[in-house]
TrEMBL record:
Subcellular location: Membrane
Family to which the UniProt record says this protein belongs: Belongs to the CSC1 (TC 1.A.17) family.
Entry coiled-coil feature ranges: 272-299
GO molecular function: calcium-activated cation channel activity
Name of the featured protein: CSC1-like protein At1g69450
Taxonomic source organism: Rhizophora mucronata
Residues spanning the membrane: 6-27, 86-110, 147-167, 355-374, 386-408, 447-470, 482-503, 546-578, 604-621
Domain called CSC1/OSCA1-like 7TM region: residue spans: 354-619
Length: 712
């Protein structure tokens, strides 16, 4: 790619970012847009939807930037939880790494690359027509002593990243323990999930569970709640909510919409009465289904609660039966984090679903190579002219060719990637996880490795699936092939960072899709007092993107350091924008207490190993065999460091220690509110679909709930 094509891409994306920032600064101050740009503030009662028009609201102001910048970590922790802190520390970790790497890359490595003569001299007169290859390590002469500067840089960056990883792992581990010790008693801390319960003849599941745990955990057992299959009940309740919304829309709309004529000469039907009768019918269906479900005990699973956290931990970690396939225990998620459809699937269905997910991921990976091949064709004008000869005259126009080769490829790739997080979340939901947080963590890993394979490796090794597989089957030649292919794609990935990084982050701020939906809803006279739904941040979309950019920065650090300033701009934008979103938009729906950090750590270790493999290959290709040999200890030492961190810190993210649990239990012994907490714990894991439901006939306000529930 020529420098001019990259400049065109940079100009387009910079313009879009500025446009989104200005529009956001204006639109966020309009009361009609509070539900788009400040739903969290609105829900907390710190803003009102309706207000008088003021001219000053049309003037863009950067005040939100200062508020986001001044937000402290403790404030973020208290308002949004530890998961949000871990997310922001992932961004700050990358900022630290690439600030250090940028100083070395731009002021040391880039001048070394530019002054090489392996390719050709830089034409500063006609600078825009230079290839970006002259800024990469490819321009350094073979066997040049200057390559030892790159060798030293690889060692230095590896040491710095490992030190920062150790510090972050230790810090977040201590934060996780402190967060647990400072938290109020939570139901999931005292509860486990028990499956494969062997029910004896003449006994119910509840009786069997109570008898077993009273015998083997007599001092700590508290209660149990049997899990039922309620998929049909959930469907009925969802249908009732739809009917209720239609009824409210009719009652608040024009009077002529409340009646409908049957045929040309038929009588008028009162639609309000029609939907009220439908709601009554659904209520009866729900009551009948609840009665049938309450009598059925076909899941052989139950949530079992204990009088102490330590008692729950003992029951979770110990094998409960001589037969390891009976009384299988798992940690219980938070009550609002439970994925209830999991319990409506049989064991065979879940087992088949796991195989289906594996096959679906493989097929998706193969199918995604189609847009990757198309994108690579767009970066090559000669290839494009062969595919579409009728476009040859248009492609000779300088601006058109620059847009097609510099901006369009990464834009197309970004559009295809938009649907990947949603697909991976769907696949994870049928894989057999019992909580929404587990589903999101699984989707996060899937999206990350999908992106690494399909964006990095598929772009670097452009070609068929069989060709890519043949490269990885030939293990000895992987470093040398990476050394040749990776630097050649530096310009594409710089454009990708600008398009996918800068623009997507600005789009996150502007919230284009919710804004459009809001405009459409207003056209259909949406009520202002309708219940506001506050979104939660989709970690499985944003964490993989940050980690992938981290991989690009680490691998291209010594190959093409020109990418580092663009990454720093992206990270600075992400730092401010996401802090603003956590203040005004997102609210957590569940809390994993920082369990996303091991994914971040593993991704960084993989990026380091990949950089080492490329370094071995590049020094071999550059005929500096001694440097290739001296690089070999680096991946070994990095893996040893990773193993130490896995032994030292990872267990903290799997389960809490006896020391922490007993300390927390002793603190609660003098808490007068614990008796009330245990009373509520007995029904905390009651399936919402089994709660008594009552359909309200008063639809004058959407604030009056359709379904009112009471504890049983």
């Amino acid at each position: 790619m020529l420098v001019s094509a990259l400049v065109t891409s940079l100009a387009i994306n910079s313009g879009l970012c500025v446009l989104f920032f200005v529009m956001y600064s204006v639109l966020r101050k309009q009361p009609t847009n509070y539900e788009v740009y400040m739903p969290r503030v609105l829900a907390e009662g710190n803003a009102r939807r309706g207000s008088r028009f003021k001219l000053v609201r049309l003037i863009p102001s950067p005040g939100w930037v200062m508020r986001a910048w001044k937000l402290s970590e403790e404030e973020l922790l208290s308002s949004s939880g530890l998961d949000t802190v871990v997310f922001m520390r992932t961004i700050t970790f990358c900022l630290k790494v690439f600030t250090f790497a940028g100083i070395i890359g731009i002021f040391v490595l880039l001048p070394v690359n530019c002054t090489g003569t392996q390719l050709h001299e830089i034409d500063f007169v006609n600078f825009s027509n230079n290839s970006l290859d002259v800024f990469t390590i490819s321009n350094v002469n073979n066997a040049s002593k200057r390559l030892w500067i790159h060798f030293s840089a690889v060692y230095v960056l590896t040491i710095v990243i490992c030190c920062l990883l150790y510090y972050e792992y230790r810090y977040i581990s201590s934060k996780r323990i402190a967060f647990f010790l400072s938290s109020k008693p939570q139901p999931h801390q005292f509860t486990i999930l028990v499956r494969s319960i062997p029910v004896s003849v003449g006994s119910s599941v509840s009786e069997t569970v109570e008898s077993f745990f009273k015998e083997y955990h007599p001092t700590t057992y508290l209660s149990n709640i049997v899990i039922r299959r309620t998929s049909k009940l959930h469907a009925l309740i969802n249908e009732a909510k739809k009917q209720y919304k239609r009824l409210v829309h009719l009652q608040t709309g024009p009077s002529q919409q409340k009646y409908k004529r049957l045929g040309f000469f038929g009588h008028k039907v009162d639609l309000v009465d029609h939907y009220e009768k439908k709601l009554e019918d659904i209520e009866q269906s729900v009551k009948l289904e609840q009665s049938e479900v309450s009598l059925a005990e076909d899941t052989q699973a139950a949530f079992v609660s204990f009088k102490s956290r330590y008692g729950a931990a003992i029951a979770f970690h110990l094998q409960q039966s001589i037969n390891p396939t009976h009384w299988i225990t798992e940690q219980a998620p938070e009550p609002n984090d439970v994925y209830w459809p999991f319990f409506s699937s049989s064991f065979i269905r879940r087992w088949v679903s796991k195989l289906v997910v594996i096959v679906a991921c493989i097929l998706l990976t193969i199918l995604f190579l189609i847009p990757v091949v198309v994108v690579q064709g767009l970066t090559n004008l000669s290839q494009l002219e062969i595919w579409f000869p009728f476009l040859k005259s248009i492609l000779t126009i300088t601006f058109v060719s620059q847009v097609i080769t510099g901006y369009l490829p990464s834009l197309i790739l970004q559009l295809f990637l938009k649907i990947v997080p949603w697909i991976m979340e769907l696949l994870s939901s049928i894989q057999g996880y019992i909580s929404h947080s587990d589903i999101e963590k699984s989707a996060c890993n899937k999206v990350l490795w999908f992106t690494i394979w399909n964006i990095f490796f598929a772009t670097v090794f452009s070609g068929s699936v069989l060709y890519q597989l043949s490269i990885f089957l030939d293990l000895k030649n992987i470093p040398s092939k990476l050394a040749v292919a990776v630097p050649a794609q530096a310009s594409f990935f710089i454009a990708y960072v600008v398009t996918s990084g800068w623009t997507s982050t600005a789009t996150e701020l502007f919230r284009l899709i919710p804004f459009i939906f809001s405009l459409v809803a207003r056209c259909f006279a949406k009520r202002e007092d309708e219940e506001l739904e506050i979104p939660s941040i989709p970690y499985h979309r944003d964490i993989p993107r940050i980690l992938f950019f981290g991989l690009l920065g680490i691998t291209y650090f010594f190959l093409a350091p020109l990418i580092l300033p663009f990454l720093l701009v992206y990270l600075c934008l992400a730092y401010i924008i996401f802090r603003n979103q956590f203040i005004n938009v997102y609210t957590p729906k569940y809390e994993t207490a920082g369990k996303f950090w091991p994914t971040v750590h593993n991704s960084m270790i993989f990026s380091l190993i990949l950089m080492h493999a490329i370094a071995v290959g590049i020094f071999t290709v550059k005929k500096l065999s001694l440097a290739s040999t001296l690089i070999l200890p680096l991946p070994v030492l990095t893996l040893l460091f990773n193993e130490y961190c896995r032994k030292r810190f990872l267990p903290i993210f799997v389960a809490y220690s006896a020391e922490v649990l007993i300390k927390k239990d002793r603190e609660d012994q003098n808490d007068a509110e614990m008796a009330e907490f245990f009373d509520k714990l007995a029904t905390a894991y009651q399936d919402p679909a089994l709660m008594p439901v009552h359909y309200s006939t008063n639809t004058g306000s959407l604030n009056s709930p359709l379904l009112s529930s009471s504890e049983v």
